[in-house]
C-alpha cells in the first residue's frame, strides 16, 4: 500500500514559546531548531519576527543554519509584519512566510472589519507576501468558529492571491473530531483550486482533543499537521508532535499516511524542550511521559516478561528509549521480583525468594518505589540471617 505523506510543521519555537513562562534563550532556540531539522521536521516555525528584536534574530539565524527543513516565520496580516518576517526568513534555503487574521465573528470584531474589508485585506496581504516569497501559508485564525460561507471565501481569496498552504486552525480547541474532518473535506470540495494547495490543521488542546482532531483533519484531506514537542503551547497547549507521529506509525493499518520523522529522536528532543522551557512532562503523558513504558502491577509485569505486546502497542526503542521499565512497588508480583534479582546478579532458590517476597511487600507498603539498592539490602539481610 502506498502511503500519502503528511508534512510535519513544528511550532514549538513560536506557538510553544508563547506559553506563559516558556521563554527560551537564543542559544536554546538554535539548539531546538537543529534537533527539529535533524529529526526530519518538514517545516519549522521559528518565531514571530516582528514580536521582538530577539525573535527576529533567532528566526534569521535559524534560517541561515537550516539544512533540510523549510523555515517559516509568523506575521499578522499587514505589510509591516510581512516585510519583517521576510527579512528574517529570506536567509533560509527554503523560506516560508506565514500570515494570518482572525476570521470568526468574535475575532473580526477586534479590528472592527466587515467581511468585505477583511476579504480585501487577505487579498492584499497574501499577494504582497507572495511577491516576496514563493512559499506562503495563509491561516484563517479561529476557522472552526468562522461562518462556513465566509471561511470558504477567505480560503478562496488566499488561494487566488497565491497562498501555497492553507491552514485551518482550531485556535481555542473547540472542535470535535467528526467536525474537524468534515470541515477540511467541505473546503476541499467547495473551494476552487483547493486541490492545488496543501491544507493544514492546527489544533489546540483546550478540551483534550487536539491529537484526535488533527488526525481526523488528515482523514478529511489535510496533509500538514501543525504541532509542538510535548504539546507545549498556549493554555492547554497544541497538538503534540510525538502523539500524531506515533499514532500514524503505529496505526498505519487504518491511517495510511507517513511522516518523515525519525521517531528514535523523539525522547531526546522531548527532554531538551522540557529542560529549556522549564515545562516538565507529566508522568503519564502519552509517548514521552516517564510512565509511558513503565509497568508496576504484577499482572502487567508478568505479561510483559512473557510477551511485550501484552501491554505495549509500540516499542520503547522506536521513540529512543533503551527499553521498557518494570519498577517494583506494592503492586508488583513474584515474576518481576525474580527478573529484577536476576538482572542484579542474584539467583535465589525458591524458598529464599518466597521469604524475600514477603519482606519486599512489607517494604513496598511503606515506600512508593523499591529501588535496586533497597532490594540488594533485603537480599543481604537475608544472607546474614537478620
Ligand atoms: O492558534 C492559532 O490560530 C494560531 C495562528 C496564528 C495560526 O496559532
Ligand atoms: Zn495556535
From TrEMBL:
Is Metal-binding found in the keyword set?
yes
Pathway field of the UniProt record reads: Amino-acid biosynthesis; L-leucine biosynthesis; L-leucine from 3-methyl-2-oxobutanoate: step 1/4
Query: What chemistry does it catalyse, as a reaction equation?
Result: 3-methyl-2-oxobutanoate + acetyl-CoA + H2O = (2S)-2-isopropylmalate + CoA + H(+)
Q: What is its EC number?
A: 2.3.3.13
Q: Does the keyword Manganese apply?
A: yes
The record places domain Pyruvate carboxyltransferase at 6-267
Reading the lineage from the top rank, the first entry is Bacteria
Annotated binding of Mn(2+), by residue:
15, 202, 204, 238
Q: Which cofactor does it need?
A: Mn(2+)
Keywords from the UniProt entry: Acyltransferase, Amino-acid biosynthesis, Branched-chain amino acid biosynthesis, Cytoplasm, Leucine biosynthesis, Manganese, Metal-binding, Transferase
EC category = transferase
User: What GO molecular function annotations does the UniProt record carry, in alphabetical order?
Assistant: 2-isopropylmalate synthase activity
- Subunit architecture: Homodimer.
Q: What function does the entry list?
A: Catalyzes the condensation of the acetyl group of acetyl-CoA with 3-methyl-2-oxobutanoate (2-ketoisovalerate) to form 3-carboxy-3-hydroxy-4-methylpentanoate (2-isopropylmalate).
Q: Which family does it belong to?
A: Belongs to the alpha-IPM synthase/homocitrate synthase family. LeuA type 1 subfamily.
In Swiss-Prot or TrEMBL terms, this protein is called 2-isopropylmalate synthase
- Report the source organism: Yoonia phaeophyticola
Instruction: Tell me the stretch of the parent sequence this chain holds.
Output: 1 to 386 of 519
